[in-house]
């Protein structure tokens, strides 16, 4: 993503300082302060060296994950998610998609209390799920929570529109309804059917990449003439609701009767039954000018509230003293990581590839960008019969010795 931003001449959005806290439904279990050392001391006081163990664990996973950039720079590709993970971190990485993040962290000496208070809060705010999400997805989410994330000035969507323009792709704005298999001179040929307000259409392609989840709730198109047939994949998606509220925070609910004294801009929550939201944060515009300042806590501001169910009026009145507007978006967002165990395939047919399965390893723009490059390299290597560039073992050694 960093490369895309550079290539497109975009900029990172300016960071606006703000403090976070974790709420249990009754009180804050952890509060960030302005002082780095005090924050460290509080973590140590509450949780011993758990946070250091966590940091070491996340860093080790990330260090191994980053090998992918080197492999891809040398043109290597993988025909399955398992092979890709194995090349980065051995069998341990594959296992990290099967066992929970809680189990992995307890094993490296992180305490149950730290898992319940801090890890649970991070995973609720990112994936809307519990500490039972797989360790790999958990590690990605925890890496993001360590403060190194960034956004694009003007909005992340500028990356997508910019790349589309740069590739000079011929974009057909339509909904794909199906893909059928044909053959030409012994080679597979794929007919992609689509419909748009102008009517129905179709076109033939040598190579197709499916970039939306193959689950009925997300894509809703069919495959025809394939033998064996390509069926919908197992697994469900986590329903998630984002409510963007312009209003006055009810700081009393969080134990601050005087709204002027409310110090937090981001509130995470522990996995407490009956707690009706996962997280909320005070959002900044996509363009942050040098003069931009956050609203004072007693002023009306724009808050984003994440929850599993749409918030009803009493719940909105619990979080806000009053509000001007509420915009609600409901979507089947992330994979429900407890609903399927096997990882989806990358190769659906000879030259028909599937990208979105990577979200079952971990769901983020970076993961999808890495997986997209893998599919591009895989398709290229298969087309040109460069089979020595696919699923190679011992790549760390190979890339070190290659010029
Ligand atoms: C609420 C939320 C917050 C997130 N926050 C972050 C974050 O802060 N950082 C981060 O890195 N990631 C975040 N993610 C994850 C990130 O958005 C995804 O990993 C990423 O969008 C996946 O990109 P994609 O192109 O594979 O799929 P998508 O972005 O899902 O794109 C698939 C596209 O296919 C289209 N489509 C579906 N069916 C058809 C069809 N039949 N015909 C034609 N088109 C079709 C869809 O309309 C959609 O535009 C978040 C996700 C959600 C839901």
TrEMBL record:
It comes from the Eukaryota. Transmembrane segments: none annotated. GO terms for biological process: prenylated protein catabolic process; prenylcysteine catabolic process. The keyword Cytoplasm does not apply. Residues 30-392 form the Prenylcysteine lyase domain. The keyword Glycoprotein applies. Belongs to the prenylcysteine oxidase family. This is Prenylcysteine oxidase 1 like. It comes from Cyanoderma ruficeps. The lineage of its organism: Eukaryota, Metazoa, Chordata, Craniata, Vertebrata.
